[in-house]
Write a structure and sequence with these properties.
By secondary structure, the protein is mainly beta. The protein contains no helices and eleven strands.
């Protein structure tokens, strides 16, 4: 069993930055590929970014490429999402999730459904004001 707890959300002006963290319980963190997803009000949850088990490979949705960076520290059981140049369209609840079957981070891009990933956090709200 893995528990995921997100933190770091908040209110920020357009153009600003936030760093989200996702702390995982358990001793098998490094065996999971990790992903960040988001759900804006009235919209379905969508994929944002994913990272391989070792952290060496990453994958992003086009709308955040060049602005967001996903990283992980397996010694700290934590995955991060650095978000720069934030836009009002980035406003959403951000979730981290773990997957033990993905062969590559891009495999996570289609796993936004509730039962697609092995574990989900409860989310952290990011609000970007214009």
């Amino acid at each position: 069993q893995v528990q995921l707890v997100e933190s770091g959300g908040g209110l920020v002006q357009a153009g600003g930055s936030l760093r989200l963290s996702c702390a995982a319980s358990g001793r098998t963190f490094s065996s999971y590929a990790m992903g960040w997803f988001r759900q804006a009000p009235g919209k379905e949850r969508e994929f944002v970014a994913a990272i391989s088990r070792s952290g060496g490979i990453t994958y992003y949705v086009d709308s955040v490429k060049g602005r967001f960076t996903i990283s992980r520290d397996n010694a700290k059981n934590t995955v991060y999402l650095q978000m720069n140049s934030l836009k009002p369209d980035d406003t959403a609840v951000y979730y981290c999730a773990a997957d033990h079957t993905a062969m590559a981070p891009r495999d996570i891009a289609t796993k936004a459904g509730l039962y697609d990933m092995d574990y989900w956090g409860k989310g952290t709200l990011v609000t970007v004001s214009s």
